[in-house]
């Protein structure tokens, strides 16, 4: 199962105390070496205007979203070494301790989170919401990618079909976005918490949206190593059944 685009494009406006703050000023590293970057609260425009950007219908309508609390976002995609530390096995096709774990379905990820939370003494790790993911990916940008509208620089930031040799790569080898997050474009698609609904943006809450209450499939974000730059846009939505295990599907976590 695969995509349909969703998105978050837009005009960006940081609010209140964090109005002029830069994310990345605070980091947290847990017991198994997962590093998290603090993302400030703020507001942005989620969605695309198809008059001005090549996108898809489920990325519309554009709407303002406010993230009302700061949160910690994984600096990198979760690696195979980190998965093994918690789960004791490695389901990935493309082996490498610092490569992103893949071939994990949404339910597998939830099991990982439960075990990680227990081992860390009840700290709250979770998948990001779709809104949090794109807000963090954009890092204040209003352009097609976090680094601009043109795909000419995509190879500096992402592993995709033109440079990946058709496999994943160790995390953190490309340039980060403005908030210090790596591989937000490419390498592996990243599961998020939300159910998928192609019409959700029309009725989405304007503060801290958590997606539809139910559905038939889940959303993944960011694009993968075997996709073209069109599928690596900040607004792009991937859609899979939650039981799908694919070599292009991984994840990163949020820590509240």
Written description of the protein model:
It is a single chain. With about 260 residues, the protein is an alpha+beta fold. It has one domain (about 10-255): paralog of FGE (formylglycine-generating enzyme). About 15% of the residues lie in helices and about 20% in strands. It is built from 4 helices and 12 strands. It has helices at about 80-85, 105-120, 130-140, 155, and strands at about 10-15, 25-30, 35-40, 40-45, 65, 70-75, 125, 190-195, 220, 235-240, 250, 255. The strands form 3 sheets. A 5-stranded antiparallel beta sheet has the order 2-3-6-12-7. Strands 10-9-8-11 form a 4-stranded mixed beta sheet, covered by helices on one side. Strands 1-4-5 form a 3-stranded antiparallel beta sheet, with helices on one face. A hairpin with a 5-residue loop joins β2 and β3 (about 35-40). The longest helix has 14 residues, at about 105-120. It is globular and about 50 Å long. The model is unreliable at about 1-20 (pLDDT under 50).
Major β-sheet annotation: 5 strands, antiparallel
**What fraction of residues sit in β-strands?**
15-25%
The CATH topology comes to paralog of FGE (formylglycine-generating enzyme)
Q: Can you tell me the CATH class?
A: Alpha Beta
How many β-strand runs?
A: 12
Radius of gyration: 17 Å
Q: Given the structure, what is the number of helices?
A: 4
Strand order of the largest sheet: 2-3-6-12-7
Distance between the termini: 31 Å
Helix content: 10-25%
What's the pLDDT, averaged over the residues?
91
- Gross CATH architecture: Alpha-Beta Complex
- For the record, the count of structural domains works out to 1
Order of helices and strands: EEEEEEHHEHHEEEEE
Question: Which runs of at least 5 residues are low in confidence (pLDDT < 50)?
Answer: 1-21
Question: How would you describe the shape?
Answer: globular
**Helix-strand category:** alpha+beta
User: What is the CATH homology-level superfamily?
Assistant: paralog of FGE (formylglycine-generating enzyme)
């Amino acid at each position: 199962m695969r995509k349909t685009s969703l998105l978050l494009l837009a005009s960006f406006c940081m609010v209140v105390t964090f109005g002029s703050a830069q994310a990345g000023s605070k980091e947290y590293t847990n017991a198994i070496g997962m590093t998290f970057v603090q993302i400030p609260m703020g507001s942005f425009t989620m969605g695309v205007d198809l008059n001005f950007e090549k996108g898809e219908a489920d990325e519309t309508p554009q709407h303002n979203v406010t993230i009302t609390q700061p949160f910690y976002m994984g600096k990198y995609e979760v690696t195979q070494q980190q998965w093994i530390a918690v789960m004791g096995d490695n389901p990935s096709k493309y082996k490498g301790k610092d490569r992103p774990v893949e071939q994990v379905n949404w339910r597998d990820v939830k099991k990982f989170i439960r075990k990680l939370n227990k081992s860390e003494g009840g700290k709250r790790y979770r998948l990001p919401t779709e809104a949090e993911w794109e807000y963090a990916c954009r890092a204040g940008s209003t352009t097609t990618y976090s680094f601009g509208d043109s795909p000419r620089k995509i190879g500096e930031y992402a592993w995709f079909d033109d440079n990946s040799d058709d496999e994943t790569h160790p995390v953190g080898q490309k340039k980060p976005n403005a908030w210090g997050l790596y591989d937000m474009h490419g390498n592996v698609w990243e599961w998020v918490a939300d159910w998928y609904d192609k019409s959700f943006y029309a009725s989405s809450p304007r503060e801290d949206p958590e997606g539809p209450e139910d559905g038939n499939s889940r959303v993944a974000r960011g694009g993968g190593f075997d996709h073209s730059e069109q599928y690596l846009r900040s607004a792009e939505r991937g859609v899979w059944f939650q039981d799908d295990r694919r070599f292009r599907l991984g994840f990163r976590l949020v820590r509240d």
